[in-house]
Design brief:
The chain has one domain. Helix content is 60%, strand content 8%. It contains 10 helices and 3 strands.
Length: 217
């Protein structure tokens, strides 16, 4: 299931992930805390990074119970309110992993805001793709409201972190709303897919500029 979700996101943007996420997966919270050190936040998902000269070391922590729950209610079979939150947590981690490793393989740096912005878009696009495959127009029609109208953030975020997450959610919401307005419902294809793939490859300033243009067109 985890590899299938990684592949789903990669295919949306026509990228080849440089690494299989399962080779970098940690499911033990104690191991994740040991790697992160003091000051870490207890969450079900986090991407752990360390730079050593020209090398980047990373691991993706996804809580074992989170993965067990999602495996027992496979979103590829049926995505609904019972597994949607777990689906979003896993997609967020996979989105971070894909985006970071793909850019790092091309020697491109990314910002924390870019990671969060892309993750919010990936939740929407991943869920929309599965809803279309499952012939669930009622789910597809509620995705924007569920993801963007009342976003919830972890209570222990610092002021700077809260600002970054809020900013990412707001810009992702504008962008996804513009996609809904410009392209037909259903499985992403044609011009919409090309737009998503072009957007994925933009720098952060170009992404934000494009969202402004699309939102106010």
């Amino acid at each position: 299931m985890l590899r299938n979700l990684q592949t789903l996101l990669a295919q949306l943007y026509r990228i080849e992930p440089p690494a299989d996420v399962r080779d970098y997966l940690i499911t033990d919270a104690r191991q994740a805390r040991a790697l992160e050190g003091e000051g870490g936040r207890d969450t079900d998902e986090k991407l752990l990074l360390a730079e050593d000269q020209d090398e980047l070391h990373l691991a993706l922590y996804l809580d074992a119970e989170l993965l067990d729950r999602l495996a027992s209610r496979d979103p590829f079979e049926y995505l609904d309110a019972d597994n949607f939150e777990d689906f979003c947590k896993v997609v967020e981690g996979l989105s971070h992993f894909n985006y970071l490793t793909w850019n790092a393989s091309a020697d491109r740096r990314v910002t924390l805001l870019e990671l969060e912005l892309q993750a919010e878009i990936d939740k929407y696009m991943g869920a929309r793709t599965l809803a279309s495959h499952q012939a669930r127009p009622e789910l597809e029609g509620t995705l924007f409201a569920v993801l963007f109208e009342s976003p919830r953030f972890h209570a222990t975020l610092s002021a700077a972190e809260h600002e970054r997450y809020s900013y990412a959610a707001r810009f992702a919401g504008w962008y996804c709303r513009s996609l809904e307005a410009r392209y037909a419902c259903g499985l992403p294809g044609g011009e919409m897919l090309q737009e998503l793939r072009n957007f994925y490859r933009l720098s952060q300033p170009a992404k934000l500029s494009h969202i402004h243009s699309a939102a106010y067109a």
